[in-house]
């Protein structure tokens, strides 16, 4: 396996940014050229991730002189395929990020947007190194595309007014980052990766700047992550998504960052009603591209080594929570210890609950998004008195209603990306608890702020 051949494991890379900036398209572009050329031994598609072997990274970056001097001692790059800050937030283990590096995608025509700021908040909280793709450069007026060209090559061939527009947009973005307290700089001018975040113009449509982007990722991984990337024995595995699959029942898509999983292993993950203890019935990865006929056509494995994205089928996963760590019962830890660790993952978030006993109630779809929301509320100094994962139920409304007597403005549920049960909604209406739902953290904040202002007016 990769882990046995190399002392360094593959860095895990997530992609974040505002909706429609081109996150999915960039990943498609990185993969597509390869698939079209039909070469063997290239990128392997996994569950929730794609693996880019180092030879492939070399091939894709060979058009850049600087990339040829790069030492590449990582086996490859594992890029998380389910873009959005949800998946970044859920790649966590015991409160720290399992993501080694990230790409923050910004639409060069729009600059920093609401979810960009949200992503920045997450990257800061998790202390993750990242680079910025200023995407959609091909949309600038008069742009002449040069398929898959390195940024500087295509830039040289553009007319002066196009280059001027690019420079102006880059400057504007740098100013916007500065307003967020971040020093950003064009990557080829970056002499200090610790102080400055690198910006690179890209187009997911023409592939321009993509070689640069890949080079920067590897560079970042090599320079700063050697310690992090040294393989450890401890199992590190995170539940990225919980999915119902016909014929398999409820499955979990996990990213195995360190260690080994076996068919039949007894595992523990966090559930809506406490830790779930179950046994792995099947370890599944997708069939290679050309073999895929039916969606549910998976390869079964007896054993899986890190780093990999894999689907796990097992009984009793219905209530599993994304963002939970996965624990294997065995030599490292016994069942009781694993259950305790799973409980602790949820209870650790109680540190965000205000000591005064007063505050809003917070409900989110996954452990990762709950943590992101709580850390944001802490930053903007909104106290929290109760937290939960999953749909809003009547009992949550009941809890929030206790604030009505003391602090009416806190008789509120901020519900992030979760359903509100009919019964809960009706009951909230009756007793005067307000439920705000949104899938952008800032929107919840804005709604709440306005509500408080209206009460005070
Ligand atoms: P996501 O929401 O960030 O994943 O964005 P998508 O990848 O779904 O892209 C949103 C839209 O922008 C789609 O219509 C894409 O075709 C388009 N798009 C993405 N990247 C580029 C780009 O580099 N250039 C242009 N012109 N369009 C792009
Ligand atoms: Mg997308």
UniProtKB/TrEMBL annotation:
<protein>
    <recommendedName>
        <fullName>Eukaryotic translation initiation factor 5B</fullName>
    </recommendedName>
</protein>
<feature type="domain" description="Tr-type G">
    <location>
        <begin position="8"/>
        <end position="226"/>
    </location>
</feature>
<comment type="similarity">
    <text>Belongs to the TRAFAC class translation factor GTPase superfamily. Classic translation factor GTPase family. IF-2 subfamily.</text>
</comment>
């Amino acid at each position: 396996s990769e882990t046995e051949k190399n002392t360094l494991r593959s860095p895990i890379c997530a992609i974040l940014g505002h909706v429609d900036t081109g996150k999915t398209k960039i990943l498609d572009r990185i993969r597509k050229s390869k698939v079209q050329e039909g070469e063997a031994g290239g990128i392997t598609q996994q569950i929730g991730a794609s693996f880019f072997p180092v030879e492939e990274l070399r091939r894709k970056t060979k058009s850049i002189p600087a990339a040829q001097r790069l030492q590449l001692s990582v086996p490859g790059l594992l890029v998380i395929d389910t873009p959005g800050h949800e998946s970044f937030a859920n790649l966590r283990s015991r409160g720290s990020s399992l993501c080694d590096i990230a790409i923050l995608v910004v639409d060069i025509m729009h600059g920093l947007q609401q979810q960009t700021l949200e992503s920045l908040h997450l990257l800061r909280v998790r202390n993750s190194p990242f680079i910025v793709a200023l995407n959609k450069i091909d949309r600038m007026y008069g742009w002449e595309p040069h398929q898959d060209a390195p940024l500087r090559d295509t830039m040289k061939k553009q007319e002066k007014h196009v280059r001027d527009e690019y420079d102006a947009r880059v400057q504007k973005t740098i100013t916007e980052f500065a307003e967020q307290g971040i020093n950003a700089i064009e990557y080829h001018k970056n002499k200090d990766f610790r102080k400055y975040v690198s910006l690179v113009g890209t187009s997911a449509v023409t592939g321009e700047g993509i070689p640069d982007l890949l080079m920067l990722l590897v560079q970042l991984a090599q320079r700063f992550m050697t310690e992090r990337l040294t393989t450890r024995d401890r199992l590190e595995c995170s539940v990225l998504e919980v999915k119902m699959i016909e014929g398999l029942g409820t499955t979990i898509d996990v990213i195995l960052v360190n260690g080994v999983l076996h068919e039949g292993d007894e595992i523990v993950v966090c559930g809506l009603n406490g830790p779930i203890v179950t046994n792995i019935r099947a370890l599944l990865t997708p069939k290679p591209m050309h073999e895929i006929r039916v969606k549910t056509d998976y390869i079964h494995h007896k054993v899986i080594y890190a780093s990999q994205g894999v689907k796990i089928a097992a009984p009793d996963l219905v209530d599993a929570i994304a963002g939970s760590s996965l624990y294997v019962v065995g030599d490292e830890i016994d069942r009781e210890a694993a259950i305790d660790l799973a409980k602790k993952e949820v209870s650790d978030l109680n540190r965000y609950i205000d000591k005064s006993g007063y505050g809003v109630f917070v409900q989110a779809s996954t452990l990762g998004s709950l943590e992101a929301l709580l850390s944001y509320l802490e930053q903007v100094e909104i106290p929290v008195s109760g937290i939960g994962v999953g749909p809003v139920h009547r009992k949550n409304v009941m809890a929030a209603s206790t604030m009505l007597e003391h602090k009416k403005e806190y008789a509120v549920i901020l519900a992030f990306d979760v359903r509100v049960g009919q019964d809960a909604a009706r009951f909230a209406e009756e007793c005067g608890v307000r439920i705000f739902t949104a899938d952008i953290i800032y929107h919840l904040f804005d709604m709440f702020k306005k509500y408080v202002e209206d009460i005070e007016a």
